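To illustrate the input format used throughout this study, we show a single complete record. The first block contains the structure-token representation of the backbone; no residue identities are included at this stage. The design step must infer an amino acid for every position from geometry alone.
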């Protein structure tokens, strides 16, 4: 197949004799970046490092090749070298963080997989740079010299700021720069427990001139354009740490709804301290107001109680801190329980026995709690037979007991426990307990017919336990068959009427539920309990819920609908339909699935088939869409970037694709090609006929010509069969202006081996290359430092001998003249590549530019280098000026021994002169050759 491979919008790659074949290829990955990078560095033995300033936009794009089109996943591991992927992932090509923060730095991984070979993984390290405002803290020490009558006063000024990269600090007194040794009274040093540069300024035995303005300048040396930060501190003979005083009691006990003001004043400190309030809960209440050291809490509530601290800081010494506790009065949750005579076995209350009534509340503060007892509304005092005890708060807080000894008939009545706080303003709590001949312990039963309880999924169901006895206790509900939460999410639910109400019941709620009596609001006896079984009925769950079946005319189709679970499951029937037409019905016997087959598909057999599996609750449905639509084509993304045409304003593209499952439906007769310029609505369409059957994995190509430079286009491709149009695929074509080959794909960008040389170049990666026999030569990774990345190299081990040559030929590139009517001013291209020449027997690496009509021997080298260049990758850049279609050729010449492996990687061809050619023995050449007659293809112009 003759054709032109598009490479660069400027160049045309001409290949002859390439036949359609299977092109399934494992994935490869390359990471490119946009946004606001400060710097991008290549670390020799690891990955690319991308430096960005905090708050800027990070945008990373994962460029992949491989067929089928790989799936892409971005993940991040913070600061580790591990390839272990975390849960947080981005499943698309571009990772975008609009305003990156410091904690978002780290190593980002792009993983691509398409089911062929191992997944391809590349990583890029993002380093976020920032510099916070520096802070100066001052510490003073006073020491009495032995046998002297004077005091020595020393001051330490410490400057600290958070930054990345590390900071360089500089100190100034007024306008003078301070440095170690410049002043006998000054020391500048770094404390041993930190890492970084000098930050502490020590002023020994203060002198009058030491009282001055000191400025600390923090600098990251304008990295990423981050300007220096400066802070000034004025040191005087009055400089002193902050001291404060709270004008409040501790603790402060208040009633809910009150307005509380906490007053904090400074009692010392130079410079004047700043005051701030903090709460022990972490944050101050939203309604709080703070002004000049006064914290006001309006309409205080129970949740506002806690410890409040006033903190004063002037950066001299340690901050001063004073705290107080706010207690908000509260009474809530009153409960009682009755304890029958513990010396008898039965739980009934009987005349002549002892009965104890206990009463408990939650009180804040507990020391203000006081109880009183009433009998039938009258105050009750403690006596020999009526013993009232308020227990020790440390043992059983907020509890009172009334012991009735030798119960008499006259003791029957209503006993009231009253709880109050001495401070008042909080409503008291009253709890009534009736003691009479009808006071009996509880009994718990399940009503007849209420267990098992059956309900349909989605209904509201009520589980009921009958409680007899007086008084009726609280009922506690929980799951009896497993450690699982109740429908409301709690492990135990209270009910005052013995009913558990479940709204919108689901199949997961089926099981056993336990109801049991609580000791609260009833008898302090062994709990009574019962179990209720809940059965939730639901329609059959089936699979597949939806499935697409693609099949050609005249072929058989079989569909299967399987029951996963259902309740009830014993009476199941099924109905098969095509649209609304009933095809087949029946009942299940011992099987749990049903089939429907079509022996030979006719055109009217296409459509939506449904299988309803039905029980008394309702149906579960399997749906099958039977269609003859062809699957979508899959674009082959190893296509070279657009680069081709004989006129400067247009370029071409060689569209390549394979067909997904081509034999699944009828033969594909043609493809409908649609193309439109991005940003415009109009589509141009044409049909591409297909001869014969398409094979799985077969590469199909079509040349798009006359594309307007530098516009981008959307291409839509739709297969057509007897059934009609199949599924479409779309892709974007953008003009990039660059040919780049990193040898990651097996076709090696259409490079070929010269058949007239002595041996061949080898494609390899450091992960698979065996260096056991020649350990001191060749690269330890590809040009990016990856051991998984590929490159080309010459293997100089035996049987190679001194002077043997290996030549690698690029595809043929067409040139685009600046003047379409004249070739007198040939265009310029920048030809660049990376080379690795390490080993004591390194021979020579030559680069040639061979133009049309020349032989390899006629083309002189445009670049040449010999000998050991060290264990590192270096870049060569050469400006070339071909006047006819051309190839670039790499020639490796074997040196005098086996330690002479030469490698190349990342070959690039770009329009224009090389902007910054390296100086290490690069050679430029300007080749001017005879003009070449151009090939013109007549086809419509896609664009303006």
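Output of the design step:
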């Amino acid at each position: 197949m003759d054709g032109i491979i598009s490479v660069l919008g400027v160049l045309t790659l001409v290949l002859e004799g390439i036949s359609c074949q299977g092109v399934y290829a494992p994935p490869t990955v390359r990471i490119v970046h946009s946004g606001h990078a400060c710097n991008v560095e290549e670390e020799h033995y690891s990955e690319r490092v991308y430096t960005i300033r905090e708050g800027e936009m990070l945008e990373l794009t994962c460029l992949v090749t491989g067929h089928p089109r790989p799936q892409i996943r971005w993940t991040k591991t913070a600061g580790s070298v591990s390839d272990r992927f975390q849960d947080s992932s981005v499943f698309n090509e571009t990772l975008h963080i609009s305003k990156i923060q410091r904690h978002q730095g780290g190593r980002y991984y792009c993983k691509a997989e398409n089911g062929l070979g191992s997944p391809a993984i590349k990583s890029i390290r993002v380093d976020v740079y920032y510099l916070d405002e520096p802070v100066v803290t001052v510490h003073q020490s006073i020491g009495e010299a032995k046998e002297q009558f004077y005091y020595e006063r020393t001051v330490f000024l410490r400057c600290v700021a958070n930054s990345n990269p590390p900071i360089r600090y500089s100190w100034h007194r007024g306008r003078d720069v301070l440095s170690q040794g410049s002043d006998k009274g000054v020391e500048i040093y770094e404390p041993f427990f930190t890492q970084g540069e000098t930050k502490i300024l020590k002023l020994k035995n203060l002198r009058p001139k030491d009282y001055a303005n000191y400025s600390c300048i923090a600098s990251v040396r304008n990295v990423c354009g981050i300007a220096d930060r400066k802070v000034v501190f004025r040191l005087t003979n009055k400089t002193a740490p902050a001291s404060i005083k709270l004008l409040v009691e501790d603790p402060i006990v208040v009633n809910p709804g009150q307005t509380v003001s906490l007053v904090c004043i400074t009692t010392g400190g130079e410079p004047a301290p700043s005051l701030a309030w903090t709460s022990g809960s972490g944050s101050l209440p939203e309604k709080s107001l703070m002004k000049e050291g006064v914290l006001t809490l309006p309409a205080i509530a129970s949740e506002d109680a806690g410890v409040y601290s006033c903190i004063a800081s002037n950066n001299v010494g340690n901050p001063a801190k004073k705290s107080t506790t706010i207690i908000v009065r509260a009474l809530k949750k009153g409960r009682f329980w009755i304890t029958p005579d513990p010396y008898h076995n039965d739980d009934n209350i009987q005349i002549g026995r002892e009965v104890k009534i206990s009463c408990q509340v939650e009180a804040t503060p507990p020391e203000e709690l006081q109880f009183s007892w009433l009998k039938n509304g009258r105050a009750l005092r403690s006596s020999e037979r009526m013993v009232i005890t308020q227990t020790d708060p440390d043992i059983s807080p907020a509890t009172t007991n009334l012991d009735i000894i030798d119960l008499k008939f006259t003791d029957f009545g209503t006993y009231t426990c009253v709880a109050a706080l001495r401070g008042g303003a909080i409503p008291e709590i009253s709890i009534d307990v009736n003691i009479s001949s009808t006071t009996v312990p509880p009994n718990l039963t399940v009503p007849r017919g209420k267990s098992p309880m059956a309900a349909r999924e989605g209904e509201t169901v009520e589980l009921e336990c009958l409680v007899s006895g007086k008084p009726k206790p609280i009922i506690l509900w929980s799951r009896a068959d497993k450690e699982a939460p109740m429908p409301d999410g709690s492990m135990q639910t209270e009910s005052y009427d013995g009913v558990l109400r479940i709204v919108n019941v689901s199949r997961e709620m089926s099981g056993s539920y336990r109801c049991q009596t609580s000791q609260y609001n009833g008898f302090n006896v062994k709990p009574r309990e019962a179990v209720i079984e809940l059965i939730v009925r639901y329609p059959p769950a089936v699979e597949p819920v939806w499935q697409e079946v693609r099949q050609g005319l005249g072929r058989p189709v079989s569909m299967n609908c399987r029951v996963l679970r259902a309740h009830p499951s014993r009476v199941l029937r099924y109905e098969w339909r095509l649209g609304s037409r009933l095809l087949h019905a029946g009942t299940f016997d011992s099987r749990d699935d049903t089939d429907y087959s079509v022996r030979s598909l006719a055109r009217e057999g296409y459509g939506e088939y449904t299988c309803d599996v039905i029980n008394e609750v309702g149906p579960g449905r399997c749906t099958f869409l039977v269609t003859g639509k062809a699957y979508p084509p899959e674009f082959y993304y190893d296509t070279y970037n657009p680069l081709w045409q004989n006129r400067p304003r247009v370029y071409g593209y060689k569209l390549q694709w394979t067909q997904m499952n081509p034999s699944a439906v009828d033969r594909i007769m043609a493809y409908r090609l649609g193309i439109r310029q991005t940003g415009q609505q109009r589509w141009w369409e044409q049909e591409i006929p297909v001869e014969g059957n398409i094979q799985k994995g077969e590469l199909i190509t079509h040349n798009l010509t006359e594309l307007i430079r530098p516009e981008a286009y959307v291409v839509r491709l739709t297969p057509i069969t007897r059934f009609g149009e199949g599924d479409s695929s779309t892709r974007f074509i953008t003009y990039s202006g660059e040919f780049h080959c990193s040898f990651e794909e097996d076709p090696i960008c259409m490079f070929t081996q010269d058949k007239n040389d002595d041996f061949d170049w080898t494609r390899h990666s450091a992960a698979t290359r065996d260096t056991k026999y020649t350990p001191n030569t060749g690269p330890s990774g590809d040009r990016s430092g990856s051991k998984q990345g590929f490159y080309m190299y010459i293997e100089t081990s035996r049987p190679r001998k001194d002077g043997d040559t290996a030549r690698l030929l690029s595809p043929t590139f067409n040139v685009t003249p600046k003047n379409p009517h004249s070739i007198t001013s040939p265009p310029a291209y920048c030809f660049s590549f990376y080379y690795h020449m390490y080993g004591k027997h390194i021979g020579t690496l030559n680069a040639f530019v061979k133009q049309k009509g020349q032989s390899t021997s006629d083309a002189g080298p445009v670049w040449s280098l010999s000998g050991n260049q060290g264990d590192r990758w270096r870049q060569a850049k050469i400006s070339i000026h071909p006047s006819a279609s051309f190839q670039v050729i790499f020639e490796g010449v074997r040196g005098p021994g086996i330690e002479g492996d030469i490698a190349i990687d990342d070959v690039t061809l770009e329009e224009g002169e090389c902007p910054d050619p390296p100086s290490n023995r690069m050679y430029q050449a300007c080749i001017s050759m005879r003009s070449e007659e151009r090939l013109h293809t007549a086809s419509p112009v896609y664009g303006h």
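Structural context for interpreting the output: The CA atoms of residues 842 and 900 lie 4 Å apart. The two ends are 31 Å apart (CA to CA).
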